[in-house]
Amino acid sequence: CEPRRAIHDCQTLFRFALYLSILHLSANRFDLGDDMQDHTQSLIDRAAALVEAARRAGADAADAVVLRSRSKSVSVRLGKVEGTDASESDDFSLRVFVGRKVASVSANVTGDVDSLAERAVAMAKVSPEDAFNTLAREDLLARDCPDLDLYDATEVSAERMTEDALAMEEAARAVPGVTNSSGAGVAAGSGGLVLVTSHGFSGSYRRSRFSRSVSVIAGEGTGMERDYDFSSKLYFADLRDPAEIGREAGERTARRVNPRKMATQTVTAVFDPRVARGMLGHLAGAINGASVARKTSFLKDRMGQPVANAAITVIDEPARMRGQASRPFDGEGVQGATLTMVGEGVLNHWFLSTSIANELGLETNGRGARAGTAVSASSTNLSIEPGDRTSEELIKEIGTGFYVTEVFGQGVNMVTGEYSRGASGFWIEDGEIAFPVSEVTIASNLKDMFLRMIPANDLDRDFGTAAPTLVIEGMTLAGQ
Q1: pLDDT in tens, 179-208
Q2: Using one digit for the tens of pLDDT, what is the confidence trace for 59-99?
Q3: Sheet with 178-197: strands ordered across
Q4: Closest alpha carbon to 371 in 287, 290, 428, 462
Q5: Which residue, 226, 259, 333, 426, could crosslink 403 as a Cys pair with Cβ 3.0–4.6 Å?
Q6: CA dist 304 → 281, 288, 341 (Å)
């Protein structure tokens, strides 16, 4: 849900949370109600019929996938409902291989399977050869897949969603200093995948997602500041209380009022976990096999070498119980094992799908992600493992520095590692948070930043990309 500018607009935030539930596609079979089981089986049967039709039409190999999504949401602002949305879809795609040629087509659930298959095969025959795009090797396919407890069948009424959204906004607006609201939103939905291949794989999954979010404004005129808070869970009962979310959003916003500008200097930056997750996202992009194959990663030649401080270990765990990005098998039917992507600072793995692995002369590690007709590589439950000191201890130790709570702008060059982004947060004096800071830029190079990085022990694993507070010395702060 790679992703990395702080999201302020409330509607964007809760729609983003729903999108993540669909983006991180995984596969699993769940004990659903009879109607849902019947529907899932009908989709598997139709996918199998597409694959068989492709073989009859002359394909040497094929796979069919159904991307499923269901969502509903309510948004409010200033005590009034602004919008309600609901959607659902089952999107089919068929990929066929004729020799080394490949083509993909999309269709709706009612399309004729034979004509679709014939069109796909005809397209493949006139396509250029692709030496790398193949089905996953049969011996790598998942056989026994654990139930990772990813689906909650709770139905949340529109009335309940509206009540929760109003309660969040009311709690946020009640915080002293809050002057306006950007709105609050509640969303519920699910995503899923059905996959059938011509070499014997058949599987399906369903994953739920519930979210609550609110964004408010403090201050007046040109001195206005905005912040937010949210909760996103697989299970409805695990969501934080609406009043708690609203109160935290209001307090975060009020603390930002009357920020100061700082003089240009070299500082030790302390990245709040919300921002630290974005730092891990940059690393994930740099160790994605697609970036390596295209030579667009600043780490493309660093396999087996130190790329981070020895205090940094990065784990990718696809089969974590109730993990936000868990998947018992990937978008190609491969069951991925837990990998130490970076161990004590040393780079050990790339994220690989079958085609990317073929291009690099390697073997897929079960990180293929399906998005319609395309297969790419992605992380699952990715985390920077915690250190042995609290964030308070690290802040006290550095004495003076910049606590970063927000970054914005697109100043990250993944080819060179150059990093320069607008930032705001709080100044640290005498080892304590002192006053808010805004309108500054922080800059360095990601190569140096990871080598200087020190993690705190406050890791919250309840994110698909999770990181603790991170301390990085030697960053340039550009201000007055």
Answers
A1: 999 999 999 999 988 999 999 999 988 999
A2: 999 999 998 899 999 999 999 999 999 999 888 899 999 99
A3: 101-107, 80-98, 61-77, 178-197, 202-218, 225-233
A4: 290
A5: 426
A6: 20, 15, 10
